[in-house]
């Protein structure tokens, strides 16, 4: 009879460990030591149980398997929660509810003063407190490690206090700041009926702007014409129709990229586009650009003492007001700067080395982050010339002024580090009803020292700090050659969330919404209408034309999409717009007796205008008038004394058979 083996009884601790391993195997594929994410690896973030803010508040022992199982189940459900900003159709991100813990709870943690990054070679930890877990879709992918902050709170040099734990529970409902009121982005009712390029553009360059330009330009023309003994056609006063034709030439030269060519080359029959000659003569175009003015010269000096932008302020403000009232932006607005290249004399010319033009006039703009529509703009006239409240930074002033029309709509503003600051984010949230996401400079006094440290930190790591209103994100990119850190502030995000690209959700959101102004600036440069000039008001005026073309094209495109109709791409749109602006003026100058026959034919052909025969008010005789007197031919030299009874069919000038060409109306 075989001897029975003695029975080995398990201790309570061993039973709990077995139960924990079984429950863990059901929920996760692998357990890693405080892993965060790798931007190049395709993985999903799985929160670790046992690290909730109130881990000991429900009466369970932290080490029991039932407590761990309950926490794991709850956090698995939370990981698929949709974005907190309800109206924003952003990507669904995995939300981490695991919070940093003190290194004292983890005996294996290295002893560093402020941060505890896990070692890349560390084996899976057996201690359950202070560890993060993540399901990995590819076990061979490399994993970056989270920066575990040592303390529960940190204070900056200015006394601003941050917490290492979120101040809002991930299980609560969407914050009120992220709930958008109902609205429909796109053209307003005033702009929704514009169905042609010309109508869309003239919504922005309305009659009031054209009349202002014509009034003050004619004063300058009179002053210039007084210098000549004879006032030729080139020196005549201008009209609104001719001014729109001038805009049409600038727009057409922009879409053809002729704006930097000389006028001689543009008006050359062999090399230039015929539409330029159909619109006006080369001399007239150059003369109008020279005389173009936008304000009263008699009061300019007085106004300039108060406002450096006075020479063009009035039409600029009318244009910006039109931009504001004709479009409803989406939930995200971008505030950034644009530099209009200019190297002439200007009291507020700026030097920005990272811009393509480097020297020029700085405009601070607000654009829709989705459509790139220009919503508002303020010229930067210098630190001293900017009227702002005491203690208010320039970035805070410009951001609040540009978004004033959209305060208390819960929209988000995305800014770069020239604008972003902690006081601005809090001010927008508490007083203006808007959230802010933006990069921030590390030298801001509200940033604690722990978020500036990059030594001994692994590329791809991140760290979070929180207040009730803000989230501060530290990120060290994977491929940063100099380990340049990225700091962002968000009053929209409240949790340490990881997005689909395995970067912090704050960075993903910033990358998607930061390009509103930059893309708008690139569009202006690609088909720019500006010409070389020595006068800075003309530089701003060309910038207004570019902005008006882009905004009107966005109106045209969105109106066509609402009608389920096809819309023109930007270059064909600019061509159609230019021809529509030129045509009314060409029709007015067509009957002029100073135009050659070839030029009349060119105008009718290029602009699709009916021939002169159909425009004549009275038809003239085709054959010689036998009853009329003999009159000297107007085209023959006076010495020949050649007389005729033939007359031109349109202008009624006497012409001999040598200069008389009978033709049908179509051929004319």
Describe what this molecule looks like in 3D.
The chain has helices spanning 12-27, 65-78, 197-202, 207-225, 240-255, 263-266, 274-279, 282-291, 300-306, 310-325, 394-402, 422-431, 505-513, 516-526, 536-562, 570-589, 597-606, 612-615; strands spanning 43-46, 94-95, 115-117, 133-136, 147-149, 153-155, 161-163, 186-187, 327-328, 332-341, 350-351, 359-368, 374-379, 412-415, 435-439, 462-466, 471-475, 486-490, 497-498, 631-632, 643-644. The chain has 668 residues and is α+β, with helices and mostly antiparallel strands. The protein has 4 domains: 11-149, no CATH class; 196-326 and 515-609, no CATH class; 373-513, no CATH class; 613-668, no CATH class. Strand 6 (153-155) and strand 7 (161-163) form a beta hairpin.
Short description:
The chain is elongated and about 135 Å long. It is α+β, with helices and mostly antiparallel strands and 668 residues long. 32% of the residues lie in helices and 13% in strands.
List the helices and strands and how they pair.
Blueprint: H1 12-27, E1 43-46, H2 65-78, E2 94-95, E3 115-117, E4 133-136, E5 147-149, E6 153-155, E7 161-163, E8 186-187, H3 197-202, H4 207-225, H5 240-255, H6 263-266, H7 274-279, H8 282-291, H9 300-306, H10 310-325, E9 327-328, E10 332-341, E11 350-351, E12 359-368, E13 374-379, H11 394-402, E14 412-415, H12 422-431, E15 435-439, E16 462-466, E17 471-475, E18 486-490, E19 497-498, H13 505-513, H14 516-526, H15 536-562, H16 570-589, H17 597-606, H18 612-615, E20 631-632, E21 643-644
Parallel strand pairs: 10-14, 14-15
Antiparallel strand pairs: 1-4, 2-19, 3-5, 6-7, 8-9, 10-12, 11-12, 12-13, 15-18, 16-17, 17-18, 20-21
């Amino acid at each position: 009879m075989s001897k029975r083996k003695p029975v080995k009884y398990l201790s309570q601790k061993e039973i709990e460990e077995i139960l924990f391993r079984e429950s863990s195997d059901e929920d996760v594929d692998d357990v890693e030591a405080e892993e965060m994410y790798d931007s190049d690896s395709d993985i999903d973030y799985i929160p670790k149980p046992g690290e909730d803010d109130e881990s000991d508040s429900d009466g369970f022992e932290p080490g029991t398997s039932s407590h761990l199982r309950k926490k794991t189940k709850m956090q698995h459900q939370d990981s698929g929660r949709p974005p907190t900003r309800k109206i924003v159709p952003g990507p669904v991100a995995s939300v981490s509810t695991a919070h940093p813990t003190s290194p004292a709870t983890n005996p294996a943690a290295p002893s560093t003063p402020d941060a505890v990054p896990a070692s890349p070679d560390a084996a899976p930890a057996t201690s359950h407190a202070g560890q993060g877990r993540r399901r990995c879709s590819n076990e061979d992918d490399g994993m970056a490690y989270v920066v575990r902050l040592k303390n529960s709170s940190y204070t900056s040099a200015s006394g601003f206090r941050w917490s290492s734990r979120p101040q809002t529970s991930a299980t609560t409902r969407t914050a009120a700041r992220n709930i958008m009121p109902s609205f429909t982005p796109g053209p307003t009712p005033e702009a929704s009926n514009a169905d042609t390029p010309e109508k869309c553009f003239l919504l922005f360059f309305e009659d009031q702007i054209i009349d202002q330009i014509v009034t003050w330009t004619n004063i300058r023309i009179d002053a210039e014409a007084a210098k000549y003994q004879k006032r030729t056609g080139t020196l005549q006063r201008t009209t609104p129709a001719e001014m729109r034709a001038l805009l049409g030439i600038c727009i057409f030269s922009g879409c053809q990229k002729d704006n930097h060519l000389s006028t001689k080359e543009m008006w050359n029959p062999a090399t230039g586009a015929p539409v330029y000659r159909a619109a006006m003569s080369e001399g007239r175009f150059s003369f109008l650009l020279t005389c173009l003015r936008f304000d009263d010269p008699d009061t300019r000096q007085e106004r300039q003492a108060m406002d450096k932008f006075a020479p063009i302020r009035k039409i600029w403000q009318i244009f910006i007001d039109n931009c504001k009232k004709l479009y409803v932006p989406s939930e995200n607005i971008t505030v950034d700067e644009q530099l209009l290249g200019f190297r002439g004399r200007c009291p507020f010319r700026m030097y920005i080395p990272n811009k393509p033009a480097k020297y020029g006039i700085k405009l601070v703009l607000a654009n829709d982050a989705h459509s790139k529509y220009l919503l508002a703009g303020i010229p930067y006239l210098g630190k001293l010339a900017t009227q702002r409240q005491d203690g208010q930074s320039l970035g805070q002033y410009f951001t609040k002024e540009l978004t004033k029309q959209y305060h208390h709509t819960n929209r988000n503003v995305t800014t770069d580090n020239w604008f972003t600051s902690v006081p601005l984010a809090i001010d927008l949230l508490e007083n203006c009803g808007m959230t802010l996401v933006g990069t921030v400079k590390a030298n801001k006094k509200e940033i604690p020292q722990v978020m500036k440290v990059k030594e001994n930190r692994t590329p791809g790591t991140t760290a979070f700090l929180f207040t009730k209103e803000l989230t501060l994100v530290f990120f060290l990119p994977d491929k940063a050659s100099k380990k340049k850190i990225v700091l962002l502030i968000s009053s929209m995000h409240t949790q340490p969330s990881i997005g689909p690209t395995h970067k912090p959700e704050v960075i993903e959101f910033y990358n998607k919404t930061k390009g509103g102004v930059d893309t708008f600036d690139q569009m202006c440069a690609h088909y720019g209408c500006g010409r070389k000039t020595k006068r800075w008001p003309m530089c701003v005026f060309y910038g207004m034309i570019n902005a008006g073309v882009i905004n009107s094209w966005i109106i045209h495109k969105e109106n066509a999409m609402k009608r389920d109709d096809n819309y023109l791409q930007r270059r064909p749109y600019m061509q159609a717009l230019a021809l529509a602006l030129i045509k009314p003026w060409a029709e007015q100058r067509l009957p002029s007796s100073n135009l050659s026959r070839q030029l009349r034919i060119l105008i009718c052909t290029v602009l699709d205008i009916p021939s002169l025969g159909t425009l004549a008010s009275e038809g003239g005789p085709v054959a010689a008038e036998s009853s009329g007197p003999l009159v000297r031919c107007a085209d023959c030299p006076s010495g020949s004394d050649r007389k005729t009874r033939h007359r031109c069919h349109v202008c009624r000038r006497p012409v001999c058979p040598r200069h008389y060409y009978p033709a049908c109306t179509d051929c004319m």
